[in-house]
Write a structure and sequence with these properties.
Blueprint: H1 17-22, E1 26-30, E2 33-38, H2 42-51, E3 53-56, E4 62-66, H3 70-76, E5 86-89, E6 95-100, E7 103-107, H4 115-123, E8 132-134, H5 136-139, E9 140-146, H6 150-154, E10 172-177, E11 180-186, E12 194-200, H7 204-215, E13 221-222, H8 225-232
Parallel strand pairs: 3-13
Antiparallel strand pairs: 1-2, 3-9, 4-7, 4-8, 5-6, 6-7, 9-12, 10-11, 11-12
Length: 233
């Protein structure tokens, strides 16, 4: 039976959608996007998620703020911040990633809830602003990399030692991956090692191809959002 939802049915879609379609993606509406929920092999994708899988998470909400007194302002809105280059999970599941003393990246959880982002968007105004919104939703893409073999695969593409005992959960690395600027956040799902990669949205096809090539020797595969959500269930 043809998939009733197609990316062309939505105004917003990941720049990777043609690649996902060629892989046999079955789509679900997430945040107004047609998101690859699975590729038709639920059991195989669930198994790959624990060993090595990559998922396009661009449909999930994200936001950013940057400015000289960002920390004081977002703290006043109830956001729990850590030290620079660390992330903290908020009560609604949003991951607050502090990139520097004055820069914040917010990532929704795998359910796509963005309550913290909505709170900050409603509270911010130009009047008396001490920080400014960064349009992460429109300029960045997000890829999830999961499974025990992920650190070994990433060693082919990145100079940071991402092994679990060297790169703790919720640590952040702002680095180069496949010669591209990337933000890597370790964000385990349940007991499974996982990374979230945030990159320039125009480069997701290139990065996906690099990841696909690098994971071939580790028997990795593309997985849908359903498999990723299953890790935390």
């Amino acid at each position: 039976m043809p998939d009733s939802l197609q990316p062309a049915d939505r105004i917003r879609r990941s720049n990777l959608y043609r690649v996902s379609a060629a892989l046999g993606a079955r789509w679900a509406d997430v945040n107004g996007f047609a998101c690859a929920a699975n590729y038709g092999e639920a059991a195989g994708e669930a198994a790959a998620a624990t060993t090595l899988g990559i998922a396009d998470l661009t449909a999930l909400p994200r936001a950013g703020y940057k400015g000289w007194d960002m920390a004081t302002w977002v703290g006043g809105q109830g956001v729990d911040l850590g030290e620079p280059n660390t992330a903290r999970v908020q009560a609604d599941g949003t991951l607050a990633c502090r990139l520097s003393g004055g820069e914040l990246l917010l990532l929704a959880d795998d359910a796509g809830d963005g309550g913290t982002m909505d709170t900050l968007a409603a509270a911010w105004s130009m009047e008396g602003a001490v920080c400014y919104p960064v349009p992460r939703s429109d300029t960045n893409a997000r890829i999830g990399i999961t499974g025990a073999k992920a650190p070994g695969m990433m060693a082919k593409m990145c100079g940071i030692d991402l092994r679990p005992h060297r790169f703790a959960n919720h640590r952040i690395a702002q680095t180069s991956v496949a010669r591209m600027n990337a933000i890597l956040i370790r964000n385990d799902r349940g007991e499974t090692y996982a990374l979230d990669m945030v990159i320039d949205s125009a480069s997701i096809v290139y990065m996906w191809e690099c990841l696909t090539d690098a994971m071939a020797e580790f028997d990795g595969r593309a997985i849908g959002l359903d498999a990723l959500r299953g890790l935390s269930a």
